Prior knowledge:
By secondary structure, the chain is mostly helical.
Amino acid sequence: MSITSAIVLFAVIWFMVLFIVLPLRMKTQGDVGEIVPGTHASAPADPQLGRKAKIVTTVSVILWVIIAGTIISGVVSVRDIDWFNRMATPELGGTGG
């Protein structure tokens, strides 16, 4: 795995975890009873983005280490998920050309 692939994998994991964590324990302005004029009652009252960013980063690093380790170790390869046999089988002992 190249450094670019590792960064892209981390970014994908980070954003997926972010979208899961954002709505957790969210209190809306309607729940609190303090609706700011010009906003919806469902707008967050206190989003706590800094705290959620730390949680997302911590969880993402743990998931990234597990997934990247699995990819680098070769336990799972692309050929393992080729359910329709579209990839050619590698030739053993070929001359390479």
